[in-house]
Recover the amino acids of this structure.
């Protein structure tokens, strides 16, 4: 019964946090963390642990797949150098600084590197959940860094675990080999999974089956990478990025609408459950300590400072070095000021990957002895995750206001440009399309007038014509929505009077829902 109780508790916690967080003006993940910490005091839930397999094989593939599907590949290409540097050298620098601090505080070198590797990568899930509302370029860079840096961190982690357990000797060749295998193998596995997904989808014509394939795809990519001992995380990311480019040409509208609804709800629930479980795991980590709580808390504070300090130092040194080396005009246009970089520093949250890595530390080494400092590694990692999410999450809005980031109008400008060109070319193609379909002149003329009216609105600009068209569109949309509501009430009444069957109700309601969603989305967008 405990499993059923956990499902109910997680669902209630996610629901309450979603209601409470906006009223407290804090990010929902912070409320979810607090819920998890409070649930740790419930005796029935104290035995709940968070298996690393659950994190690595259930949460991460699904969450990273959706993050990569909804990330801008164009922005990644534009900021590729900073993303690569942050996801490789910054991870190594963070792991090294944490290892030095942890060793100075009494942890042996190899376990200190395990701890450093665990807390080095930023978390894509946390960035996506907390850093919303930032300019698109900043968010894309942060998300891309978080999606890729896990591979570097897990290579360091694997080496440190192997050295501690006694199964591996540290050498330049082994480090280079593992790094190449993690990145190249993961990328190849992701591309293979994307290719298999595309070939299978072309042979399907059922939206439900196509979405079953969508669910299986990230786990297939992760599995292929695991077979090759490569980075499953990178495989999922590469697979998602590849399909984000192919999907718009391949996926049908009904399948895409169903898929978007499914993944939006699924990732929302997984995200919420993940943050609650992280808060709950903090309680479990405290109970598993063999050192004093005071010593452990000092470690958490010092290691958190090392993680934050390394990122701060990186953001205010490396960009200036790159700037001095690359003086090309196009690169000068990509430069950002210190205030924007400070926002990036504050958005360096830790999360699921860090916790999964800490929990996956073996209990014993080759000699049969206990893994040195395992309980400390788990507690400190849990503490760093909580500190970065809570402290930096609460301070991020303050830093954003201090940074005085200008309005990000690029997306809106590109959207209007795309709508204008799309409508112009569609209007120009109308005669040919009508001739091909044998459409009557009256229907052709009606559609032509609708397109020209829409084009006048798009070309109106910000003058009185634009305001007049906006008012017209608002009134038109409101009236259409009111008519749809009246139609729905009518068809429900017919069902209640037993004039029509429930099956007929659902069919008509589905059509009305699609039209209502289309109008509502246009209302929100405009």
């Amino acid at each position: 019964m405990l499993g059923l109780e956990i499902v109910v508790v997680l669902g209630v916690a996610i629901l309450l946090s979603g209601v409470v967080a906006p009223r407290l003006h804090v990010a929902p993940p912070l409320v979810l963390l607090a819920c998890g910490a409070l649930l740790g005091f419930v005796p029935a839930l104290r035995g709940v642990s968070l298996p690393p397999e659950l994190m690595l094989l259930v949460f991460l593939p699904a969450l990273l797949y959706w993050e990569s599907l909804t990330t801008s590949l164009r922005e990644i290409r534009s900021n590729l150098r900073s993303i690569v540097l942050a996801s490789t050298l910054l991870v190594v620098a963070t792991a090294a600084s944490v290892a030095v601090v942890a060793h100075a505080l009494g942890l042996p070198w190899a376990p200190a590197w395990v701890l450093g590797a665990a807390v080095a990568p930023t978390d894509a899930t946390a960035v996506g959940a907390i850093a919303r509302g930032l300019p698109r370029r900043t968010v894309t860079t942060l998300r891309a860094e978080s999606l890729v840096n896990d591979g570097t961190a897990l290579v360091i982690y694997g080496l440190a675990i192997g050295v501690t357990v006694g199964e591996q000797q540290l050498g330049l060749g082994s480090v280079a080999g593992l790094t190449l295998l993690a990145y190249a193998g993961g990328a190849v596995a992701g591309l293979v999974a994307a290719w298999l997904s595309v070939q299978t989808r072309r042979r399907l014509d059922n939206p439900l089956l196509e979405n079953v394939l969508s669910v299986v795809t990230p786990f297939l990519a992760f599995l292929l990478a695991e077979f090759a001992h490569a980075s499953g995380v990178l495989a999922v990311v590469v697979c998602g990025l590849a399909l984000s480019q192919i999907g718009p040409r391949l996926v049908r509208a009904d399948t895409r609408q169903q898929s978007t609804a499914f993944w939006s709800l699924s990732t929302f629930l997984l995200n919420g459950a993940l943050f609650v479980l992280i808060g709950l795991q903090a309680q479990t980590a405290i109970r598993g300590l063999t050192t004093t709580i005071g010593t452990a808390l000092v470690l958490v504070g010092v290691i958190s400072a090392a993680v934050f300090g390394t990122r701060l130092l990186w953001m205010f040194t490396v960009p200036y070095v790159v700037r001095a080396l690359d003086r090309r005009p196009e690169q000068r246009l990509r430069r950002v000021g210190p205030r924007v970089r400070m926002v990036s520093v504050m958005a360096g949250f830790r999360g699921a990957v860090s916790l999964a890595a800490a929990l996956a530390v073996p209990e014993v080494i080759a000699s049969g002895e206990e893994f040195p400092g395992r309980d400390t590694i788990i507690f400190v990692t849990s503490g760093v995750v909580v500190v970065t999410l809570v402290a930096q999450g609460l301070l991020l809005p303050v830093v954003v206001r201090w940074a005085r980031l200008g309005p990000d109008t690029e997306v809106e400008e590109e959207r209007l440009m795309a709508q204008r060109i799309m409508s112009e070319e569609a209007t120009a193609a109308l005669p040919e399309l009508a001739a091909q379909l044998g459409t009557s002149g009256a229907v052709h003329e009606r559609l032509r007038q609708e397109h020209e009216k829409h084009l006048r609105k798009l070309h109106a600009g910000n003058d009185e014509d634009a305001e007049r068209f906006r008012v017209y569109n608002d009134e038109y949309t409101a009236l259409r929505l009111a008519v749809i509501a009246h139609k729905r009430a009518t068809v429900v009444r017919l069902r209640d009077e037993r004039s029509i069957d429930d099956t007929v109700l659902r069919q008509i309601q589905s059509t009305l829902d699609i039209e209502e969603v289309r109008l509502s989305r246009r209302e929100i967008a405009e």
